[in-house]
Specification:
The complex is a heterodimer of chains A (about 575) and B (about 350).
Chain A: H1 6-9, H2 21-26, H3 31-60, H4 70-104, H5 113-132, H6 167-179, H7 192-220, H8 233-264, H9 278-312, H10 319-332, H11 348-376, H12 385-407, H13 410-416, H14 420-450, H15 456-482, H16 499-529, H17 568-573, H18 579-582
Helix pairs in contact in A: 3-4, 3-5, 3-16, 4-5, 4-7, 4-9, 4-14, 5-7, 7-8, 8-9, 8-10, 9-11, 9-12, 9-14, 10-11, 11-12, 12-14, 12-15, 14-15, 15-16
Chain B: H1 3-27, H2 39-72, H3 89-116, E1 126-132, E2 137-142, E3 148-152, E4 154-158, E5 163-169, E6 174-178, E7 182-187, E8 194-197, E9 203-209, E10 222-227, H4 229-240, H5 251-261, E11 293-294, E12 299-300, H6 303-316, H7 340-352
Parallel strand pairs in B: 1-5, 4-10
Antiparallel strand pairs in B: 1-2, 2-3, 5-8, 6-7, 6-9, 9-10, 11-12
The chains are: A mainly alpha (about 575), B alpha+beta (about 350).
C-alpha cells in the first residue's frame, strides 16, 4: 500500500484526534485514565460543595443572618448535600475503584472498558446538567432527600384543603405565588425539582454501569491464585458497594420517576386526598438512601484497610472478619431504612423492628473498628500523611458511629431527629470518615498514578488543619441539637443559646477552607515542580498495584502475576516470611 | 514583639473571645432537650444521659488503645520488623459478643421506653387539633359547650394534664416539636398522626417546626403555655367570647371598614363579625390582642411589630401568604398602600381584641 488513496495522501502527517493529548483522554477506555478523570471530577465538585458549605456557615455564623435570602439558602443547602454525595464521594470512590481494582486483582483492565467510559461521561454531563440549573435560577431547593409533597408542582396537592377558596383568596394566593421565586410550598411549579430528578437519574445510570462492571471484573478477572479470600479488602468493599448500588438504585429511580409523573402527567402517587401518600416517597427514597450511605462509606473502609497495614508493617488484623462484616453490613443495610422515619407516626411495633435492625448493623461496624486498632497494635508505625488520615479516620468514624447508634435509640431520636445532632452525625461519618479516607487515598496512591510524590509536610499540615477544623465545625452541632435547634433552617433567632456554638462551627469551617487551600497549593506545586521519580513500590506495600511501575504501563503488567497469598508483594520481598508459608489462606 | 509570641497572644485572645461567647450563650434560656418540664422529655433526657455515659466510656477505651498504639509502636530507628499477626479468632469472637450484649441491653431499654411512652389515661385530657400551615401553627380546641375555639401561635395547656394533639396538614409535611416537653411528631397530609404532651411545670416553652416545609421553615414557631388549671379554663372561656359589632361612626367601625375594603376579611375571621362557621387562610383574629406572638411565632405582639407586619409582611417573612400592604402587590387593596392613619386604626382595633 505504498501510494495510499486520494483521501489519505495529503494527510499522511496528521494524527487522528483521538491520538492528540486531549483526544486521547476524551476517547479513552483505559481504566486508569477513566479513574483519574473520575477523581479529578469528584475533587472538583468537592470544592464546589465546599463553597456551598462556606456560604451556609457564613449565613449561620450569626443569628438573623442576611448573607443569603431564604430562597437562595434553600438552593445552596440542597445542592451542598446533592453535590457532596452524588458528585464528590461517589465519583471519587468510583475513580479509585476504577484505577485500583484491575491493578489489585492483576487484570489488564475492567471487564467492559467502553461501558466504563460511558459511566464517566454520564457523570460528567450529569453533573453539568445539575449545575446548569443555577443558570436558570432554578437549582433544586427541596433538600437532597426531596420530600413530597413539598416537591409536587400542581395545586392539586391542595386537594385536602378544608373549605373552598373564594375568588378573592385565589387571586391573593396567585399574586403571592407569582411574587415568590420558586413558588411557595407545594406550588413547586419551577423547574428546580425537574433538574434534580433528571440529574440524579443520569448519575444513577453512571453508578449502575460502574457497579455492574466492578462485579463482573472482580468475579471473573482475578489473577491466577487470587481466590476471593485473597483479594485486597478494597476490592471486597468495592464489590459489596457495587451489589448495594445494583439493588438500591432501582428504588431511587422508581421514586423519582413517579415524582416526575406527579409533577407533569397528572398522577397522584404522593398526593394525599387524591389516593396517594407522601410517606410512599419516604419509604421508596430511604430504601435507596440507607444502602446509599453504606455505598459512601464501604470504599472508605476498604482504603483504610489497605493503608493501615502497610504503614504498620503487618497484615490487617482479622481479614476474614473485616471482609465478612462488610458483607453483613451490606445485607443489613436493606433492613434499616425507616430509622430515618421514626417521627412520622409508624406503629410502635414497626419502629421497634427498625430499632432492632439498626442495633444489629452497629455490630459489624464495631468489629471493623476493633480490627483496625488491632492492626496498629504491635506494628512498626510510619506516620506518613496517608497514615495520619487513616488513623484520624478511625477516631472520627468512631464518634460518628457512636452518635449514630445514639440516633437508633428511638425515644432519644424523637427529640433529636431533624436537628443539628443529625447534621453532626452525618458530617462525622462523611467528612471524618469518607473525606478523610479519600484524602488518605490521594496521598497514598498519588505516586502510583502520577509518578510524583505530594509534599508530605504540606500534607501533614493539611491533616491537622482538617482534624481541628472538623471537630470545631461539627462537634458543637451535637450541642445545638440538644439545645433545640432544628436543621434546614436558613436562620435562627438570637438569645436562644445557639449563637456562640454556631459561630464556633463557622470558624471550624473557615479552618477547613485553609486546609483545602493548602491541599491545592500542594497539588499545584507537585504537578509543576516535583520530579517524576516514584518507584513502583514507594511505600514498601503488599498488594499487586505496587508490582508494576509508577505510573503503570497501559497494559498494567508485563506478565500476568500469580499469587499465593493475600500479600503477593510481601511474599516477593520477604520469601522466608512469606504469608503462604506462615498462614494458610 | 517576636512574631511567634504575637501570634500566640492573638490566638489566645481569639480563643478567649470564643469561649466567652459560648459560655455566655449557655446562660441564655435554650429550648433544651436536657431541661425537661414534663414526663416524656424527662424520660428521653434520662435515656440521653445513659447513652452519653456509655458512648463516652466506649470512646475513651477505644481511643486510649488507639493512642497507646500510636505512641508505643511508632517506628524507631533500628527496630525489628513487627510480628506478622494475621488475627485471633478468640479475640474476634469476644469483641463481637461484648458489643452485641451491650447493644442488646440498650435495645431492650429502647423498646421498653418506647412502649412506656404511650399516651396515659387521664380523665381531664385536653384534646387539641394542631393544623400546620405554611408557615404558622393553628390550634383548635373544643370548648365544653361544643364550640370550636381557633387560635394561632400559642398552645395553651393546663399543668399536670395530658394534652392529646391531633396533627393535620393540608399542604406539606411539618413536624411539631416542643423540646422541653417531649419528642416531635411529623404532621403528614393524609395521615391522622396524634401525639400527647404533658407539662408538669408552669411556664412558656418554645415550640418549633422540625421538618423542612419551604422557605420560611425557620420562622414557624409557637409557644406552649403551661398554666394552672384555673387560668387555662379562664383562657378557654374568654376565647369563646365573640366580638360585638361596633356602632357606626366609632373608630372601631372605621377600622372594620378598612378591614373589609383592604381585603383582610378575605383571609381572616373575627368571630361575631365574619360569617359564622367559615375557616379561611389566615389565623383567626378574634382575640388577637391577647396573644404574645404573631406572624407564625416570629414577632412579639406589640403595635410597632404589628405595623411592620401589616405594611411589610413580605420583608419580615418573604414568601408567606400574608401580603405587604405597602402598595407593592398589585392585587392587594387595589395596589394602594395603606395610609398611616388607616394602619393606626387597624392596629389599635386589633390590639383591642383581647
Amino acid at each position: 500500500m505504498a501510494v495510499g488513496t486520494v483521501a489519505t495522501r495529503g494527510r499522511a502527517a496528521r494524527r487522528r484526534w483521538s491520538q492528540t493529548a486531549l483526544g486521547s483522554w476524551v476517547t479513552t477506555a483505559d481504566h486508569k485514565r477513566i479513574g483519574i478523570m473520575y477523581i479529578y471530577t469528584g475533587i472538583f465538585f468537592f470544592f464546589i460543595g465546599g463553597i456551598e458549605a462556606a456560604l451556609i456557615r457564613l449565613q449561620l455564623a450569626r443569628p438573623d443572618g442576611t448573607v443569603l435570602s431564604p430562597e437562595a439558602y434553600d438552593q445552596v443547602f440542597t445542592m451542598h448535600g446533592t453535590t457532596m454525595i452524588f458528585l464528590f464521594v461517589m465519583p471519587t470512590m468510583a475513580g479509585f475503584g476504577n484505577y485500583l481494582v484491575p491493578l489489585m486483582i492483576g487484570a489488564r483492565d475492567m471487564a467492559f472498558p467502553r461501558l466504563n467510559a460511558l459511566g464517566y461521561w454520564l457523570l460528567f454531563f450529569g453533573g453539568l446538567f445539575l449545575y446548569s440549573s443555577f443558570l436558570f435560577g432554578a437549582a433544586p431547593n427541596a433538600g437532597w432527600f426531596s420530600y413530597a409533597p413539598l416537591t409536587e408542582a400542581t395545586p392539586a396537592c391542595l386537594a385536602t384543603q378544608v373549605g373552598t377558596l373564594t375568588a378573592q383568596q385565589q387571586a391573593q394566593l396567585a399574586a403571592n405565588a407569582a411574587a415568590a421565586p420558586g413558588g411557595i410550598g407545594c406550588f413547586g411549579a419551577g423547574a428546580n425539582m425537574d433538574f434534580w430528578i433528571i440529574g440524579i437519574n443520569l448519575l444513577g445510570v453512571a453508578s449502575l454501569v460502574g457497579a455492574l462492571n466492578f462485579v463482573v471484573t472482580i468475579l471473573r478477572m482475578r489473577a491466577p491464585g487470587m481466590t476471593i479470600n485473597r483479594m485486597p479488602l478494597f476490592a471486597w468493599m468495592t464489590m459489596i458497594t457495587s451489589f448495594l448500588l445494583i439493588f438500591a438504585l432501582p428504588s431511587l429511580t422508581v421514586a423519582s420517576v413517579l415524582l416526575l409523573f406527579d409533577r407533569h402527567l397528572g398522577t397522584h402517587f404522593y398526593q394525599a386526598g387524591a389516593g396517594g401518600d407522601p410517606l410512599l416517597w419516604q419509604h421508596l427514597f430511604w430504601s435507596f438512601g440507607h444502602p446509599e450511605v453504606y455505598v459512601l462509606i464501604l470504599p472508605a473502609f476498604g482504603m483504610v484497610s489497605e493503608i493501615l497495614p502497610v504503614f504498620a508493617g503487618k497484615p490487617i488484623f482479622g481479614y476474614t472478619f473485616v471482609a465478612w462484616s462488610g458483607v453483613a453490613i451490606g445485607f443489613l443495610s436493606f433492613t434499616v431504612w425507616a430509622h430515618h422515619m421514626f417521627a412520622v407516626g409508624l406503629p410502635t411495633i414497626a419502629q421497634a423492628f427498625f430499632a432492632s435492625t439498626t442495633t444489629m448493623i452497629a455490630i459489624p461496624t464495631a468489629v471493623k473498628i476493633f480490627n483496625w486498632v488491632a492492626t496498629l497494635y504491635g506494628g512498626r508505625l510510619r506516620f506518613t500523611t496517608a497514615m495520619l488520615f487513616a488513623t484520624g479516620f478511625i477516631a472520627m468514624f468512631l464518634i460518628g458511629g457512636l452518635n449514630g447508634a445514639a440516633l437508633g435509640v428511638v425515644p432519644f431520636d424523637y427529640q433529636i431527629t431533624d436537628t443539628y445532632f443529625v447534621v453532626s452525625h452525618i458530617h462525622y461519618v462523611l467528612f471524618g470518615g469518607a473525606a478523610m479516607a479519600i484524602f488518605g487515598g490521594v496521598f497514598y496512591w498519588f505516586p502510583k498514578m502520577s509518578g510524583r510524590f505530594l509534599n508530605e509536610t504540606l500534607g501533614k499540615v493539611q491533616f491537622w488543619l482538617m482534624l481541628v477544623g472538623m471537630n470545631l465545625a461539627f462537634f458543637p452541632m451535637h450541642i445545638l441539637g440538644l439545645l433545640g435547634m432544628p436543621r434546614r433552617q436558613y436562620t435562627y433567632p438570637p438569645n436562644l443559646g445557639w449563637d456562640g456554638l454556631n459561630l464556633t462551627s463557622s470558624i471550624g469551617v473557615a479552618i477547613l477552607i485553609v486546609a483545602f487551600l493548602v491541599f491545592l497549593f500542594n497539588y499545584a506545586k507537585t504537578m509543576l515542580t516535583a520530579p517524576v521519580n516514584a518507584p513502583g513500590d514507594p511505600w514498601d506495600a503488599f498488594t499487586l498495584e505496587w508490582a508494576t511501575t509508577s505510573p503503570p504501563p497501559a497494559h498494567n503488567f508485563d506478565t500476568i502475576p500469580v499469587v499465593r497469598s493475600r500479600r503477593p508483594m510481601w511474599d516477593q520481598k520477604h520469601p522466608e516470611l512469606a504469608d503462604w508459608r506462615t498462614a494458610v489462606h | 514583639m517576636r512574631f511567634r509570641t504575637k501570634m500566640r497572644r492573638w490566638a489566645g485572645v481569639a480563643l478567649l473571645a470564643l469561649l466567652v461567647s459560648v459560655v455566655l450563650s449557655a446562660c441564655e434560656k435554650s429550648p433544651s432537650v436536657l431541661d425537661p418540664a414534663g414526663p416524656i422529655a424527662t424520660s428521653e433526657a434520662n435515656i440521653f444521659w445513659f447513652i452519653l455515659a456509655l458512648s463516652t466510656f466506649i470512646f475513651v477505651v477505644v481511643t486510649a488503645v488507639l493512642l497507646y498504639s500510636v505512641f508505643r509502636f511508632r517506628e524507631r530507628p533500628g527496630a525489628a520488623p513487627p510480628r506478622q499477626i494475621h488475627g485471633n479468632t478468640r479475640i474476634e469472637i469476644a469483641w463481637t459478643i461484648a458489643p452485641s450484649v451491650i447493644l442488646f441491653i440498650v435495645l431492650g431499654i429502647t423498646i421498653g421506653t418506647m412502649f412506656a411512652l404511650a399516651q396515659p389515661a387521664d380523665a381531664n385530657t385536653v384534646r387539641v387539633r394542631a393544623v400546620a400551615h405554611q408557615w404558622w401553627w393553628e390550634f383548635q380546641y373544643t370548648a365544653p359547650n361544643g364550640q370550636t375555639v381557633d387560635v394561632a401561635d400559642e398552645l395553651h395547656m393546663p399543668v399536670g394534664t395530658v394534652v392529646e394533639i391531633s396533627l393535620f396538614s393540608d399542604n406539606v409535611i411539618h413536624s411539631m416539636w416542643v423540646p422541653e416537653l417531649g419528642g416531635k411528631t411529623d404532621v403528614i397530609p393524609g395521615h391522622d398522626n396524634k401525639m400527647w404532651l404533658r407539662a408538669d411545670k408552669a411556664g412558656r416553652y418554645r415550640g418549633e417546626c422540625a421538618e423542612y416545609c419551604g422557605t420560611q421553615h425557620a420562622h414557624m414557631d409557637f409557644v406552649a403555655v403551661a398554666e394552672d388549671r384555673g387560668t387555662f379554663q379562664t383562657w378557654l372561656t374568654n376565647e369563646q367570647a365573640t366580638v360585638q359589632k361596633p356602632t357606626d361612626g366609632t373608630p372601631d367601625a372605621n377600622a372594620l371598614a378598612i378591614f373589609q375594603s383592604a381585603g383582610c376579611s378575605g383571609c381572616h375571621v373575627i368571630n361575631g363579625i365574619s360569617p359564622a362557621n367559615i375557616r379561611l387562610i389566615g389565623p383567626n383574629l378574634t382575640h388577637f390582642g391577647s396573644r404574645r406572638l404573631i406572624a407564625g411565632g416570629v414577632l412579639d405582639n406589640n403595635p410597632a411589630n404589628l405595623h411592620q407586619w401589616i405594611l411589610h409582611a413580605q420583608q419580615v417573612k418573604d414568601g408567606s401568604d400574608m401580603p405587604s400592604f405597602d402598595g407593592s402587590v398589585p392585587t392587594v387593596n387595589g395596589g394602594k398602600a395603606l395610609t398611616s392613619d388607616q394602619l393606626d386604626s387597624l392596629v389599635n382595633y386589633l390590639e383591642s381584641l383581647q
